[in-house]
Amino acid sequence: MGPSRIAGIRPVFIFLFTLISILLLASCDAAAQTSIQKVSSVEGITEYRLDNGLQVLLFPDPTKENITVNVTYHVGSKHENYGETGMAHLLEHLLFKGSTNHPNIPDELSQRGAQSNGTTWLDRTNYFETFSATGDNLDWALAMEADRMVNSFISADDLQSEMTVVYNELQRGENNPFNVTMQKLRSAAFLWHNYGNSTIGAPSDLENVSIEKLRAFYKTYYQPDNATLIVAGKIDSDKTLKKIAQHFGSIAKPKRTLPEMYTREPASDGERSVTVRRVGDTQIAMLGYHTPMAAHPDSAALTVLSNILSDQPRGRLHKALIEPGIAANAGAWNEIKADSSMFMAFAVLNADQTLAAAEQTLMAQLEAMAQNPITQQELERAKLSILNGFDKSMEDTQTIAIQLSDWLTNGDWRLRFLHRDQVEAVSLKDLQRVTSAYIQLNNRTLGRFIPTDDPQRVELPQVASIDAMLEGYTGREDIVMGEAFDPSYDNIAARTEFFTIGKNIRVAALRKKTRGAGVRLNIQINYGSLESLTGKARYAGLVGDMLGRGSEQYSREQMKNAFDRIKTYGGYGANSGGSWAWLASNHDNLVAGLDILAEGMKNPTFPQNELDQLVQANQANIESALSQPQALASNVAHRRLSPVGKNHPNYVRTFEEQLALLKNVERQQLVDYHREFFGADHMLVTIVGDYDREQVVTALEKHFGDWNTGKDFEPILLDYQPIDTTAKTIDTPDKENGAFVAVNLYNLDVYDEDMPELVLGNYLFGGGFINSRLATRLRQQEGWSYGAGSSFEPNHMAPRTVFWGWAIGGPENLNNIEQGFKEELQRVLDKGFTDEEVQSGISGILQSGKVQRADDEQLAQMLQRLMFYNETLAQHKQFEAELADSSAKDVEKAMKQYFSPDEMLYIKAGDMSKAAEQPPAATAQ
Fold first, then answer.
1. Is the Cβ–Cβ distance between 343 and 349 less than 8 Å?
2. What is the C-alpha separation between 909 and 631, in angstroms, rounded?
3. Of 530, 571, 743, 848, which has the fewest beta carbons less than 10 angstroms from its beta carbon?
4. What percent of the chain has pLDDT over 90?
5. In this predicted structure, what is the pLDDT of residue 31?
6. Whole-angstrom Cα distance, residue 544 to residue 578?
């Protein structure tokens, strides 16, 4: 290589450098010239508008170490034309396939440990990612979203593979009796409006849609003047606006005019009906009534009505259907949409219950309210429950950032707050008016068609101007802010206090200022041994589920009321060897919530009527699982992992055995189990958030200081032994979706020297966001599966670490999925991972851990596990450090030592008559 060659390329280099400089300057100039207009501000959320029409909502929250970026496009399945159903949803999938400057979006999301997804619904499509709050991450997210807004590939090759992935998603929905019934009802209820179409689309449309139509749809609706950008979390508003202007300001406002949506559903002229007949064990009765759009004031009254009907255990449907044993589950909800939508109610029955009786009772509860008027007490209780839920949701900026997508496309994001105000103002007169106007025979869709000589039509009112309704609206004062919290291991260690109350109650407490003064409290009690629990633990789960369903001081309904009055949520559970309880409250109400929680945990009365309801609900769930491929495959795998006798506390029962157990349960068995094992002898308590230490310690001493059984606790540990890897095939006739599972058990625990490399290797093989080796092959390349992945679960107490591989797919693709899984695992063993993959995986795992520690609920759970396993934060930090030091050769060596595709348990479940029709695919190169 001589000087003349260098001289020859210099002019080209100078030209390219000059061109790039000009483009960069043009981009900066465009951002600088972009004006951002402030539009409105309500309760901490501020709206802005760019010159190109992009709507921006900023929701700063310095107490979170995360940021959520959510881009909502005002387009959903209702915007699709004839022959194009499913196009909005299919396009959502293709936008993860890459764009000009971001060709591998799933890889970028995984590198940054982002929690991400895209969703499509009737009125909108949105894409969001939550990530650790750094300037670099925010810059990347905004740049990526701006690029895929107008520069996504939308290629024919991607369409070919992703179309089958979407088709598998459709198959998954077809396995769910509730979803199928609801969609058939909607199709019968809407004659003309596209709300009657399934968002996922018709199979024939998915199979035949052209790439040209998809590109045209994309260019029409994916533009800044049809989009809303929401940024929430730990952000500086001024700096964020500058970044938004930089990345989005250069996108030109389109010249096209958006299509006008003018179709309205006419008034119904008689009740309608639809019947679904498919294989399964669950019976369902469902009702739908046409109702006004979200912006109409009646929407608030209908929301209150749905709570009065569906609340458990206080709601009318619970008392009329579940308590007398007519149904196993029941509920109602008010759909809030941009156009006229529906009020829905349902009853789910097990095989022993009578559908006709449930159907008649359900209709009577809704359509005969004039004979049984709603009381003032019911009204106030429902409003309190709804408003408490609203207040609680405002503590979580990520949740609000995503929820706003629906309210945006309902007409205006501020409607969310106005709807709350309207709920607060609902009166008995309002409820009487809406039930009379909308909840009536001729406006109902059930599943039948009956002609009538005197049709009654319900004309739905419209709203003249949402802007006029909201003119001057400012909402209420912003919620109380907390502190900026660093979720590093060092800071958590410095801020966490470990101490013991009395002799037995171990506490981990991290006090910090939180948004809304929120606080999370977890309690775990550990009890029993292999000897004491043998033959007795079979009803442990029922005992945990019955806590809170009645105590010496409260009935189930009274306990729910007591929690609602102090804006607190709580719950219970148990298994063989342990029980738990939790509270989500605030500084001022934590002790009062603990009083209620302790009462339910210590003094349950196990009411027979509540036990009957619980047994019925469990029976319905188990009967449904009897024909579900994923549930059956999982049950087989867990039984292979725990090959013990029927009286052993860790025995895993078949679904048939679980049904037989339910039929023989007696109340006294639960009473005796609770009396023998439940106490604070080995109690763990975790508190994270804003609390008064002295008050909480005093309350814990009062409630649990002398609550003892005097018995030892010895964890039940199984010795390692290789599992039976004989392959299993399960036939589930007439199920459109299938399940694939690969399982193995390893003689390893979390402290093994190879564990960091194995955890990293699993993440690269089957973790991350649809960019793992497994997901790339089965979903991205082949289109066989909507979802595929793997997990590697290090055991902290015994050398029994489990690997899980899984995928869902149409039965015709199950053989292909198994073959693809084996080939990809073998490819890892033969060639390992690249250095780039390993560094990306390390970044993803570390950032994902930081995101989890920034969440108070997950942080509390982590601290509780530390105490249970007698571990330290320093050990967790060291594990991450060792993982970060892993090289591609280290990972390859560890994977080769332990993994082999020939030493796995493989389980396939689905309609095997369809699987037999499909020959195995050729090996991918």
1. no
2. 9
3. 571
4. 86
5. 52
6. 9
Length of the chain: 925
Asked if residue 16 has pLDDT above 60, the reply is: no
Which one is predicted more confidently, 28 or 172? 172
Q: How far apart, in whole angstroms, are the C-alpha atoms of residue 296 and residue 118? A: 29
303 CB-near residues (< 8 Å, 6+ apart): 334, 336, 386, 419, 423
Q: How many CA atoms lie within 13 A of 682 on its CB side?
A: 19
Encode pLDDT of 284-298 as tens digits: 999 999 999 999 999
d(CA 370, CA 374): 9
Residue tagged 């089957």 (tokens): 766
3-state secondary structure of 822: helix
How far is the C-alpha of 161 from the C-alpha of 206, rounded, in Å? 12
Mean pLDDT of 793-814: 96
Return the axis-axis angle of helices 211-221 and 87-94, rounded to nearest 10°.
90
* DSSP output for 852-895: HHTSHHHHHHHHHHHHHHT--HHHHHHHHHHHHT--HHHHHHHH
Confidence of residue 281 (pLDDT cuts 50, 70, 90): confident
* Amino acid identity for residue 697 in this structure: V
CA distance 304 to 294: 14
Residue type, 747: N
Band (pLDDT 50/70/90 cuts) for residue 32 is low
Query: CA-to-CA distance for 589 and 547, rounded, in angstroms?
Result: 21
pLDDT of residue 5: 31
Strands (E), 223-362: 227-233, 283-291, 329-334, 341-349
Please check the confidence at residue 176 and state whether its pLDDT lies above 90.
no
Separation of alpha carbons 705 and 679, rounded Å = 10
Residues facing 67 on adjacent strands: 131, 233
Rounded Cα distance, 669 and 532, in Å: 15
Residue-level pLDDT at 657: 97
pTM above 0.70, yes or no: yes
Gyration radius (Cα) of the chain, Å = 29
Average pLDDT over every residue of 87-101: 97
Measured distance CA(901)–CA(917) in Å, rounded? 25
Tell me which residue of 913, 511, 519, 549 sits closest to 735, measured CA to CA. Answer: 913
- Write out the H or E segment, with its range, that includes residue 538: none
Q: How far lies 198's CA from each of 88, 188, 445, in Å?
A: 11, 12, 17
> Distance of CA 571 to CAs 37, 323, 328, 549, 596, Å?
46, 21, 20, 10, 11
DSSP codes, 691-737: --HHHHHHHHHHHHTT------B----PPP-------EEEE-TT-S-
Place of tokens 């993440």: 763
Cα 497 to Cα 161: distance, rounded to the nearest angstrom: 52
Name the phi and psi angles at 251, rounded to 5. -80, 120
Strands 227-233 and 55-60, by their bridges, are parallel
State the pLDDT at residue 551: 98
Q: φ and ψ at 633, to 5 degrees? A: -65, -45
Helix locations, 428-580, DSSP H: 428-438, 466-470, 489-495, 530-533, 540-546, 556-565
**Which has the closest alpha carbon to 773: 705, 826, 717, 721?**
826
Given a contact cutoff of 8 angstroms between Cβ atoms, the answer to whether 790 and 773 are in contact is no
Contact 443, 290 (CB under 8 A): yes
Mean pLDDT across 164-173: 90
Would the pLDDT of 20 be above 80?
A: no
Dump the DSSP string for 330-359.
EEEEE---SSSEEEEEEEEE-TTS-HHHHH
Residue type, 33: Q
Question: Residue 604 carries which DSSP code?
Answer: B
